Amino acid sequence: MRRMDPFDQRAMTLSLGLHVSLLVGLWLSTFYQSPQLEFIAYEIELVSPPPAEQAEEEEFATEEVAIERPEPEPVPPEPEPEE
Fold first, then answer.
1. Cα 33–35–41 angle (5° rounding)?
2. What tens digit of pLDDT does each residue of 13-35 get?
3. Dihedral of alpha carbons 36, 40, 43, 44, sign
4. Can you say whether the dihedral through the CA atoms of 50, 55, 57, 58 is positive or negative?
5. Cα dihedral 14→19→22→26 (10° resolution)
6. What is the pTM of this model?
7. DSSP assignment of 16-74, as one string?
8. Within its chain, how far is the Cα of 35 from the centroid?
9. Rounded to whole angstroms, how far apart are CA atoms 4 and 11?
């Protein structure tokens, strides 16, 4: 009968192989370069129109706003208490 060994040699070998293959894959991926994207840059020349004659500033007449308030109703006198 085979005794259970807490350190399984086969599991250790497979784990080491997996990790080494992942590290090698990551290292090899650093050599791959994606193609550079080419951007088209347009040159735009901004030209402002010639200055127009400045018009006189309009002065707006200030209007006072009239608020109509209704006259309050007079308060009715309180009735005198009866004795």
1. 135
2. 999 999 999 999 999 999 888 88
3. negative
4. negative
5. -160
6. 0.37
7. HHHHHHHHHHHHHHTT--PPPPP---------PPPPPPPPPPPPPPP-PPPPP-PPPPP
8. 30
9. 13
